[in-house]
Amino acid sequence: MGPRRSDGYHELVTVFQAIDLIDELRVVPAAELSLEASIIDAEAETVVQGEDNLAWKAAALLQDRFDVTAGAHMNLSKRIPIAGGMAGGSTDAAAALVACNALWGQPASPAELFELAAELGSDVPFCLRGNTALGSSRGEVLTPVLTTGELSWVVAASFKELSTPAVYRRFDELAGDAVPAPEVPADLMAALRIGDPERIGAALHNDLQRAAISLIPDLDLLLEAGRDYGAVGAMVSGSGPTTVFLAKDADRAVELAIMLSSTGLCKWARVVKGPAPGARVIPDSGNRPRVVPVT
Ligand code: C5P
């Protein structure tokens, strides 16, 4: 992570990997735009509804820029933790762009969709693309990263939420004035190319982790527990508070998820695979576009 720029964003270099923890967005034709959101397997949590949801903003931006007069009803079913540092909102925005573009007869080319994505948020372009990529600038400039094989991750959701700008502010406070320019993580890129989980795990690093832990100190205990239970790598995802653990293989990932679930330090722990594709349309039997975005 580099210093804060004059536009308020931080210059960064990051390796993104999409995993198969999926939100689903069902889109059907309608005269106006509308959006209803819910959370799968969870109650008593708040999810942003209607115009304030980034998926709605994505559809509205596409409508506006390409003079689309049609609307859409969007039904969003969420699995990705909210305010969790997993680019869940960005994933839903990418899904809305792809789904509404399909529903409205492809007014935007793939390149134009990519530009709209960057306007909506730093992580939205990656959520369109998926797989594994090196992000630079504020995260929206992407270069594909070569990887070998599939990785078995465990995602542990926090009981708490963190605001991304608040974590970046804390990062600034902790870093002070001496923030060096960000560098491409050569060791991680080499490990991904070979596909060796132990080398990848050893190379995992997140500059925002210290800031996230200073806001939620229990995250450190959870990371330590994961390492004790055999994770070859453990870190806070993005700006947190979701934590991710790399396992040596799929069986060890299952054991790790069970152990982490029993600590009482996380809301749930789930085994996922990476890399996974980005937002894509899956037409349903009624021939209506349905998008399964992946982050
Ligand atoms: O681009 P996005 O809207 O997702 O960014 C959310 C917030 O995260 C920004 O308002 C900013 O505070 C912070 N951010 C940053 N540097 C980045 C990306 C995000 O400071 N490269």
Verbal overview:
With 295 residues, this protein is α+β, with helices and mostly antiparallel strands. It is 35% helix and 21% strand. The protein contains 10 helices and 12 strands. The strands form 3 sheets. Strands 3-4-2-12-11 form a 5-stranded mixed beta sheet, covered by helices on one side. A 4-stranded antiparallel beta sheet has the order 8-9-7-10. It is globular. The mean pLDDT is 95. Bound molecules: cytidine-5'-monophosphate. The site of cytidine-5'-monophosphate has 11 residues, from helix 5.
Quick gist of this model?
This protein has 295 residues and is of the alpha+beta class. It is 35% helix and 21% strand.
Keywords:
295 residues; alpha+beta; 12 strands; 21% strand; binds cytidine-5'-monophosphate
Instruction: Name the structural class.
Output: alpha+beta
Q: Report the strand count.
A: 12
Backbone shape: globular
Which percent bin holds the helix content?
25-40%
Number of helices: 10
What small-molecule ligands were found?
cytidine-5'-monophosphate
Query: Could you describe the largest sheet, including whether it forms a barrel?
Result: 5 strands, mixed
Strand residue content: 15-25%
Indicate the radius of gyration in whole angstroms.
19 Å
Strand order of the largest sheet: 3-4-2-12-11
Element-level helix/strand string: EEEHEHHHEEEHHHHHEEHEEE
Provide mean pLDDT, rounded: 95
Uncertain spans, ≥5 residues at pLDDT below 50? Answer: none
Query: How far do the termini sit from each other?
Result: 21 Å
